[in-house]
Amino acid sequence: MILVIGSINQDIVAKVNHLPKVGETILASSGEYFFGGKGANQAIACAKLGAECAFIGRVGADKFGQAYLNNFNQHNIDCQGVIVSKSSGTGLAFITVDEQAHNNIVVMQNANKEITINDVLAYEKLIDQCEFILLQLEIPLEAVKQIISLAYQKGKKIILNPAPCQKLNPELLSKLYVLTPNETEAYQIVNKALNTDTTNINNLVAVGQQILTQGVKNLIITIGSYGVLHFYQNEVYHYKGYLVNAEDTTGAGDTFNGALLYYLSQGYSFPEAITNAQAAAALCTLKLGAQTAMPTAQEVSEFVNKVGVSERMLIKR
Length: 317
Description:
Layout: E1 2-5, E2 9-15, E3 30-36, H1 38-49, E4 53-60, H2 63-74, E5 78-85, E6 91-97, E7 103-108, H3 117-121, H4 124-129, E8 132-135, H5 141-153, E9 157-160, H6 170-173, E10 178-179, H7 183-189, H8 201-212, E11 218-222, E12 228-232, E13 235-239, H9 252-265, H10 270-284, H11 297-307, E14 312-316
Helix pairs in contact: 1-9, 7-8, 9-10, 10-11
């Protein structure tokens, strides 16, 4: 079984012709409500691919929270660990998407910020039953640190998607099986000023190697359409991205993380898991919304068979 611990949000998505500048008010061409939250998105991605998945998190005692519990049940996700908060509403995310599928996101944590280690200890049996645990940083960092320490003591394989990025110390990083920042988060982890071109591979390799010295076993940096960098020991591999006509990139990162976890849990090698996760993320961008666009394992397989395995190149040893 896979366990995901993290955030649950109701996404409110506005389609616009361009992202607003500072002080600018613009009109949306359309708007929709979607289920979201990095934690929940990643759990749904796992479940749609076919994983046996459980979730620990919080919702509010409101219509969004009840709808989310129904959503988890419809995807056969064990949601006994989802606590209904009496003092906060369900998390909200306000997402603006432009005609080039670029987006910006503002999140109100609400019930998500109430998550503590006690929530997890109340459902410790879920940790005992799983092999892999996936976390993000849309819940309190102190809770994440304590959860990672508990899971590490139990010998679990921990994947951390450090989004939104916060200060991470070497003690925490050394307990991770996989760390999955995007290019911006990778720079932030090492407190390095953002290069004007964060997708520059050579710059990212240097940043990644600096992160690796802090004890992470596997570092996977996602670079959007430019692909993925995988750091393991002294080797760095670049996987080229799949080029598709993206409609909405909102859920691509979460789909990648959920799919990576799913394929690793099924015994796939890192090259196989990364390629399939890239394919899943590419497919997710073809529709509006995060969870509604996430593919099944059959759709991923058909896509890879049609367009081929993403090119993998050893760029440093």
